[in-house]
Amino acid sequence: MLAMAPSHKLKVIILGHLRGVKGTIGLAALCLVGVTVTQLLAPWPLKIVIDYILLSHPLPPSLGFLTNFFQSGSFLPILVVSGVIALLAILGGSLSYYQIYTTTKIGHELVYVLRRELFAHLQRLSLSYHHRVPTGEILTKFSGDTNTLKDAFTDWSLKAFSHVLMFLGMFIIMFSLSWQLSLIVLVTLPLLGGILFFLNKKILTSVRTQRRQEGKINSRINEVLSSISLVQAFGRQGYEQERLEGESSENLEASIQTARTTAAVTTVVALMSAIGTAGTVFFGAWQVLKGHMYPGDLLIFVAYVRSFFKPIRDLGKLSARFAKASVSAKRVAEILEIEPEIQESPNALIAKDLHGELTFENVSFGYQDNHTVLDQVSFHIDPGQRVALIGESGAGKSTILNLLLRLYDPQEGSVRIDKVNITHYQRESLRHEIGIVLQDTVLFGASIEENISYGKPGATRNEVQEAAQQAHAHDFIMTLPNQYDTIIGEKGSTLSGGQRQRICLARAFIKRPSILILDEPTSAVDPESASLIRDAIAQIQTGKTTLFIAHQFFRMDQFDQILVLESGRIVEQGTHRDLLKRNGSYYNLYQQQRDIQEPANIQPVG
């Protein structure tokens, strides 16, 4: 069973859970043994009725103590035998109920443990992984593959054990009844085993293709639904439908191939069962006619032969399911074996009450090996300074923020806060000291209060309201149906752009961060909302180190420093007045905005 889980981490998770419930698994296994015994005993009461009651054959020496009982009349023995049949059915049913209940419970608990560990690991993985791997593929592994593993390591494993036990028990009893008839059945097994091995390999191949295509389909659906407004605005529903149908057809073909091969397993086993049964009836009846066997013995033998191939057939089906589980185990293991690129120092410092002194020293970084985004970037920001990052799209402004938040580590150089390399800080404590408001708002489909307190878990209602008031969000929140308890749509879809941005500001403010990062939060909102947001920022940034990605040159004289980036390098650095006097890159960018914007939106020089 463990062969299907090549990942050491996956083995540790699964075995750790199963070890914790080994007592329950042991009881379930005992119940399976009991069910198997009742199934093996099921034909014997009929043999007793036929041989010793209806045909009045003498009892064997082992049952000699029942001779007087069987000679007392037929009614009472038949009644007792019928009661035994009912008792075996009740006992088998009760044991089967407990086994199914316990294994199902263990399986669901295993899914819980797997998903908990997998989700925690996914959150630890670096952004580069999440940018590289489609979300739909991750969701398929998280949901579908963990369910498959649940069945494999609990329900299917015990079923396989039960079938093997049943197979061995029947063969031993059959061999004790007639080794000649047993050989007839035995000669079919090598051929059956070879065919099942070949079919199982085909199933494994088609299952791999099927699971891979399911991941692509989920990725496509997730991508389209997350951008449904764009798809509808451009009238591209038909195009997206065709793309999905193309990928779905490949998955359909792989699924049909799996179903065809699985059906072939059942057909082959049924054919071998029919051959074995026919041979047993023919030679068994001849043995009865010659007086070498009782009719009841033949009845038991035929019942066992008909049931003999059922475990093999079910094991064949289980082999297809284990093939799926093997693929699922490898897919889950792929995630668990990936180590986060951002590693925590063993003796990391807790970042708390930072002064906000920032230093980049000869920092180089690229998201891809052959493309550099930042090239030997160096600058220094004193505590409490307000600094603007200016540059064309792709110049490296957002990358500087990503490095500061330690979403990535620089490939060369160092980033220091309060003279300490940020790799020496605990990441979670460092990020708690940094408040961030992005241009693209990110909200959750939860209550207003939950979205604001996301920046400070356990925040009180008073703290939430205070942060909302600072962000000029309190007034509009009080007009909502349930005020702070109002549930907003996914990504804040039930709020306007300005309202969403002010909620994001409140989420950043409630942290009371030492460092504030703002990615032009007013560029996508109406003038009134922009004015309110600027007032809120001016109030909260007092005394805090503030980095501001500026897309619009509004009130540039308020910044203590302006860093101008071009192609991953800082080409100019200084105040608004100084940079304009140089007539360089900043002056050109400034003049370009003067040409395309209303004069009122540009702060005049001097």
Structure, explained:
- This protein has 606 residues and is α/β, with parallel strands linked by helices.
- Among the domains are: 2-336, Up-down Bundle (ABC transporter transmembrane region fold), CATH 1.20.1560.10; 443-512, P-loop containing nucleotide triphosphate hydrolases (Rossmann fold, 3-Layer(aba) Sandwich), CATH 3.40.50.
- It is 62% helix and 9% strand.
- The protein has 21 helices and 10 strands.
- It has helices spanning 8-20, 22-41, 44-54, 67-71, 75-124, 127-132, 135-177, 179-186, 188-226, 228-233, 237-289, 295-336, 397-404, 427-432, 448-453, 461-470, 474-478, 497-509, 527-540, 576-582, 585-596; strands spanning 358-365, 374-381, 386-391, 412-417, 420-421, 434-437, 515-519, 545-549, 561-566, 569-574.
- The protein has a 6-stranded mixed β-sheet with strand order 6-7-8-3-9-10, sandwiched between helices.
- α19 (527-540) links the parallel β7 and β8 (545-549).
- α7 (135-177) runs antiparallel to α9.
- The longest helix has 53 residues, at 237-289.
- The termini are far apart.
CATH architecture of the domain at 2-336: Up-down Bundle
Strand content: 5-15%
Estimate the helix proportion, in percent.
55-70%
Overall pLDDT level? 75
Indicate the overall shape.
Answer: elongated
* Major sheet summary line: 6 strands, mixed
Number of helices: 21
Radius of gyration (CA) equals 37 Å
Q: Within the CATH hierarchy, at the fold level, what is the topology of the domain at 2-336?
A: ABC transporter transmembrane region fold
The low-confidence runs, each spanning 5 or more residues with pLDDT under 50, are: 1-6, 598-606
- Looking across the biggest beta sheet, what order are the strands in? 6-7-8-3-9-10
| Alpha-carbon distance between the two ends | 77 Å
Q: How many strands appear in the DSSP assignment?
A: 10
CATH superfamily of the domain at 2-336: ABC transporter type 1, transmembrane domain
Judged by helices, strands and strand pairing, the structural class is alpha/beta
The top level CATH class name of the domain at 2-336: Mainly Alpha
